[in-house]
Structure formats: structure tokens, C-alpha cells
């Protein structure tokens, strides 16, 4: 029983360390046309957002909104995959998160 408690606290400590690591991981994602770039952290905070000037034309509003939405969603997905990969390595077993 004490071994299980010790393992629990070790895992809790590792999870806390992983959280700190993910806070400083930065992932960059660009839209398919390269006109929007998002930098997101491993804990899913948007660090920066770059939009090329040409997308600010009034007639390009729909394109801007679509590209921005897609790019942010791709960045979130990439961040989640990064966190899941690190979590899987940390727990050393294949369980869904």
C-alpha cells in the first residue's frame, strides 16, 4: 500500500514538472497560405499572432476569418498533441487522456 502512495506522489510531482515544462514550450503554426502565423504555448496560451497586411482588405474579411479560425484550431491541436505525447511518456502506459 505504501508503494502505491509513493508512486502516486511521484506521479503528482512529475505532472507538476510537466505542467511547468509545457508553459515554456512554444509551437508555431502557419495557415496553409502562410499569411497567418500563431505561436501557442504547450499549455495552450496564444503567445503571438501575425497577420499579413493584405488580409486586412474589407473584401478579404471572410478569408481572414476562415484562415484565422483554422490556424488557431491547428495551433491548439498541435499543443494538445505535444502535451499528450509528453504525458504518455511520463506515465509510461498507453491509456487515453
Keywords:
97 residues; alpha+beta; three-stranded antiparallel β-sheet; 2 helices; rod-shaped
What would you report as the Rg, rounded to the nearest angstrom? 18 Å
Percentage beta strand:
15-25%
N-end to C-end Cα span:
25 Å
Q: What overall geometry do the principal axes of the alpha carbons give?
A: rod-shaped
Secondary-structure element pattern, one letter each:
HEEEH
> Which secondary-structure class do the elements indicate?
alpha+beta
> Taking strands numbered 1, 2, ... along the chain, how are they ordered across the largest sheet?
1-2-3
Mean pLDDT: 85
Q: In this structure, how is the largest beta sheet organized?
A: 3 strands, antiparallel
Number of strands: 3
The helix content, as a percent range, equals: 55-70%
Low-confidence stretches: none
User: Helical element count?
Assistant: 2
Outline the structure in words:
The structure is a single chain. It contains two helices and three strands. It is of the alpha+beta class and 97 residues long. It has a three-stranded antiparallel sheet with strand order 1-2-3. The longest helix has 31 residues, at 61-91. The two termini are 25 Å apart.
Amino acid at each position: 500500500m505504501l508503494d502505491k502512495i509513493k508512486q502516486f506522489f511521484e506521479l503528482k510531482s512529475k505532472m507538476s514538472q510537466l505542467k511547468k515544462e509545457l508553459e515554456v514550450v512554444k509551437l508555431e503554426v502557419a495557415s496553409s497560405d502562410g499569411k497567418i502565423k500563431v505561436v501557442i504555448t504547450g499549455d495552450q496560451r496564444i503567445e503571438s499572432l501575425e497577420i499579413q497586411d493584405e488580409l486586412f482588405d474589407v473584401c478579404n474579411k471572410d478569408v481572414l476569418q476562415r484562415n484565422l479560425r483554422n490556424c488557431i484550431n491547428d495551433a491548439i491541436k498541435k499543443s494538445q498533441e505535444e502535451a499528450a505525447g509528453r504525458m504518455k511518456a511520463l506515465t509510461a502506459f498507453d491509456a487515453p487522456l
